[in-house]
Amino acid sequence: MFCASRLSMEEIRETFADAETVVYWDVEDFPVTDAVTFNENIRTALGNVGYRGNVSIRAYYGGDNKPSRSDEIAGITFVSRASKRGRMHSMLLDMHLLALDNLSCAPTNLMAITKDLTWDEDEEETQFATRLMLLNSECYNVLLVVDDDLRGRLTKMPHSLKYTAWCWEDISVYRPSYPTRPIHHSIVESFRRQPPPKMYMYEEEDPCHRCGK
C-alpha cells in the first residue's frame, strides 16, 4: 500500500505511467459536439504526459441529452442521470465500487471532469472533494479538468489534494500543431490554498498509517 498524495510529481508520473485511467465526465457541465473526437483527445492528452495504460470513460448525461449512435460506438459508457446531484452521486458510487474491486491496490488514475466539486461550490453536499482526497491518500492518482477560471477553481481545491489539471479548452479541442499539456505544476502550486496553521512550532506531520511516509 502506498499514498499517491505523499509522492512527488516525478514519482507519480513514474508510478502511474502504465496504470489504468478511469475518466468520470459530466457531459452537462462540459458538453462536446463529437464524443468520438473527444475520446481521442483524452487519450492523446494522457499520452503526452506519459500515461500509457488503458483508458475507460464513463459519461454522465441528463435525460434530454441522449448520446448519438456514433457516440456509443466511441467506446464510452453513458450513464443517464437527470439532475446534477444524481450525476455526482453516480460518479462517487462508481469510484467507490472501483476501489472495492481493486483488492490488490493497483495504481489507478482517476480523471474527474465535472464542476462544483470543491467544498466551496458543492451545493448538493456530495463531499466530492473529500472522496477524492481519501482516494488520493491511497493508490489513486487524481487528474482534473477545469474551466478557464483557473484562479477561481484551483484556489478552492483542498490543500492536501495532489493532482494534475488540464484546461477544458485545451483538452476538448484537437490541435495537431499544439500538443495538449496539463497546467504547469508551478501554476497549480501557486494557487494552492495554505494548510491550517500548526498549533505548536515543533509540531510535525504524522507518518501515514498506510505507507509509513
From TrEMBL:
GO terms for cellular component: peroxisome. InterPro entries: Marf1. GO terms for biological process: regulation of gene expression. This is NYN domain-containing protein.
